[in-house]
Amino acid sequence: LADMGEGEVREIERVFEEDEGLLKFFDDEGSRPGQSVRLDARAPYRGTVTAEINGRPIVMGTQVAGRIWVH
User: What is the pTM of this model?
Assistant: First the structure.
């Protein structure tokens, strides 16, 4: 997800599973394999991206976004 361009839509392939807290965050936000994701905005100086997953905007750090693999 971290490498997507603004406005780009892809499908979540997998999420990082080795951090229980992060996995709970992904689950709470609906970031699951098979879900559609659109990258809405980047804020590089803040270190965040805004993505839309399941019709909901989600702001996350670029490190977290890098733990969501898309295709």
Answer: 0.90
